[in-house]
Pectin acetylesterase (Aegilops tauschii subsp. strangulata), 329 residues
Amino acid sequence: FRFPFSLEMESSVCMDGTPAAYHLDRGSGAGNKSWIVNLEGGGWCNNARTCRFRTRTHHGSSNFMERQIIFTGIMSASSAENPDFYNWNRVKIRYCDSASFAGDAFDKGTGLYFRGQRIWEEAIRHLLSIGMASADRALLTGCSAGGLAAILHCDQFGAFFAGRSTTVKCLADAGLFLDAVDVSGGRSLRSYYGDIVAMQGVAPHLPPTCTDHLDATSCFFPQNIIDNIKTPIFLLNAAYDVWQIEESLAPSKADPSRAWRACKFNRSACNASQINFLQDFREQMVASVRGFSGSKSNGLFINSCFAHCQSELPATWNGTPTIQNKVEV
């Protein structure tokens, strides 16, 4: 469903100016008044060249989006695969802004729209108008760039239900991107995020509890946000997040000698020093959630898998995982 919004410069549109969109599978039975809103992921772009390229894909234009998609994992309609949410109203908001639904800018030179924040706000208002306002339960989820978006927007999501009796929670899958040192001693992801925040006008939409004492780029990193989120949130992440290993810790620019080329794609090819580097990254991730984990309203599952996104894949979301008699969701 394409949002019924105008195509004016000020409206909520994809990067090429086409209307934003979402997919909805209505709930039934006991899940009729429960809603799960999934923010699609799919990376980012940090300059005119990469952003223009994305306008020729569904990550930058609704012209390239499928009219129908298959919901899997936490979005599945199968009671066997997804016993907790299969009969809920399930919504996937398509990702076509490339800044985790957080930017608000227009580049006159390139003609690119960066309206992620507006897409987010208009989508939620529209869903409220078609039934979500009367929800008993509402869950905001997302994976990867969508997982980061779920973290950034969790309290905003909760605020939409202020004054209502709705139980509101969030789940961020593979969204715990760390401000980590790469194999060259630099900070590749920080540099990349800095470009995104500046180009897309992200700063005004970041949590003020972070921006009141840190720079905007730092506040695009979840480790600097999660401790102050008031809405209950669950973090699901692989400690050896393969995207972060490949693109943040050992990107090609940081590894000109290609010493990490084999290791980053196949852990069995890593030498002892590289294994130690990866284990240190795991320790950084565990340390980043230490304060967060002290809250009784929050939850987390940080596993030692080499993976990226686990809630939307049938192979890693099948039934309800249980650890020491505690379920994951």
Summary: The two ends are 29 Å apart (CA to CA). The chain is about 25% helix and 15% strand.
